[in-house]
Amino acid sequence: MNYKGYIGKVEYDDENDIFTGSVINVRTVITFQGSTFDEIEKEFKASVDDYLNWCREDGAPAEKP
Predict the structure, then answer these.
(1) Residues 26-50: tens digit of each pLDDT
(2) Is the CB of residue 20 less than 8 Å from the CB of residue 13?
């Protein structure tokens, strides 16, 4: 998945029946999860947006992908 230049990698956890993912092209740890493809895509975008908002509010530069 790609959103605003951030790339998300998703894996399926069959023991817990859930998708888990992380942004792979930055050192900052950004994770997300969901139970359907639509949900995991929505959560990926929300996690990137949350990270960017947190950086802006904290006055810290966001790590660029």
Answers:
(1) 999 999 999 999 999 999 999 999 9
(2) yes
Tell which residue, 63, 59, 54, has the closest CA to residue 23.
63
CA distance 55 to 18: 28
**In the structure encoding, which two tokens stand for residue 65, read together?**
């992908």
Strands (E), 1-65: 2-3, 6-13, 18-23, 31-34
Tokens at 17, concatenated: 């029946």
For the record, the structure tokens of 19 come out as 């998708």
Exposed e or buried b per residue across 41-50, where buried means at least 16 C-beta atoms within 10 angstroms of its C-beta: bebbbebbee
Asked if residues 17 and 35 have their Cβ atoms less than 8 Å apart, the reply is yes
Cut 0.90: pTM above it:
yes
Quick one: DSSP state of residue 49? H
